[in-house]
Amino acid sequence: MAAPSQLILPDAVRDAMIGHAQRTPALECCGLLIGIGDELVTVLEACAVRNIATTPQRRFEIDPQEQFRLLRETRGGDLRIVGHYHSHPEGPPEPSAYDRDMAHDPEAVWCIIGLNPPVVEAFVCPDQAIGFVRLPVIARP
Predict the structure, then answer these.
(1) Is the pLDDT of residue 1 over 70?
(2) Taking the model in full, what pTM does it have?
(3) What are the strands of the beta sheet with 137-140, ordered from one edge?
(4) Which one of 34, 48, 64, 74 counts the least CB within 10 Å of its CB?
(5) Average pLDDT rounded to a whole number, residues 70-84
């Protein structure tokens, strides 16, 4: 599979991610993105999961039990985990050095939420040496 080159993000999914971040404004929220597609990825659902990081004010770590549960639920169908999202409560919606260090899947979509103003930006990291590349986001009602 090739790394994604565009992301279709329905308004309802974007609003759900932003709402999750707004409910925990001092902590990084996180979740998994369920969708379809390879180069043109369509996100159909944002599943909020627990952030189990020891410093959730500055880091996120997806609960592996919740990730495995979603992997089981999507196995054998057209839907799959296409990536994840997290918020940057006090910073811009840009990948951090920590995010780059954690980017091991070149096909995973990274959505980062900024709160001031509320916005979702999308990225992929095809190569850790190169770093993140911004994905064009196509909004859909």
Answers:
(1) no
(2) 0.96
(3) 131-135, 118-127, 109-115, 80-88, 30-36, 40-49, 6-10, 137-140
(4) 64
(5) 95
Q: In this model, does residue 81 exceed pLDDT 70?
A: yes
Task: Give the catalytic positions in this structure.
Answer: 28
- φ, ψ at 68 (rounded to 5°): -65, -40
What is the third-level CATH fold of 6-140? Answer: Cytidine Deaminase; domain 2 (3.40.140)
Give every CB contact of residue 40 below 8 A, 6+ residues apart in sequence. Answer: 4, 5, 6, 8
The residue behind tokens 């196509």 is 138
Distance of CA 98 to the CA centre of its chain: 15
- Indicate if the pLDDT at residue 27 is higher than 70: yes
